[in-house]
Design a protein that fits this description.
This protein has one domain. Helices cover 10% and strands 33% of the residues. It is built from 1 helix and 5 strands. It has a 3-stranded antiparallel sheet. Strand 1 and strand 2 form a beta hairpin. The longest helix has 9 residues. It is elongated and about 55 Å long. The N and C termini lie far apart (39 Å).
Length: 89
């Protein structure tokens, strides 16, 4: 597996290459070369630390390949008390 530096990961994130969870449907993953929205996943692997997923994709229009990295953002559950205070669940 190829190593990627922080600048490359930031560039990938800037292109909106993030998948939405559920059903395998992607949200906003567009080819960084031609901008087309349809692609197919060639390979998926878990990152070394287990908190990311690396996917190799191929654009269905220009047939070029690119890599996306996915990370789950954990949002803590909050409880709103009667007096308006918020506490973690």
């Amino acid at each position: 597996m190829a190593e990627h530096d922080k600048e490359e990961l930031d560039e990938i994130a800037a292109h909106g290459n993030v998948e939405a969870g559920g059903g395998g449907r992607k949200a906003g993953v567009k080819c960084p070369f031609c901008g087309h929205l349809d692609d197919k996943v060639i390979d998926s692997r878990e990152g070394r630390t287990g908190d990311t997923i690396r996917r190799r994709r191929e654009c269905l229009k220009c047939e070029r390949r690119f890599t996306t990295y996915e990370r789950i953002d954990e949002i803590p559950y909050m409880v709103i008390k009667k007096d308006g205070r918020r506490e973690r669940f």
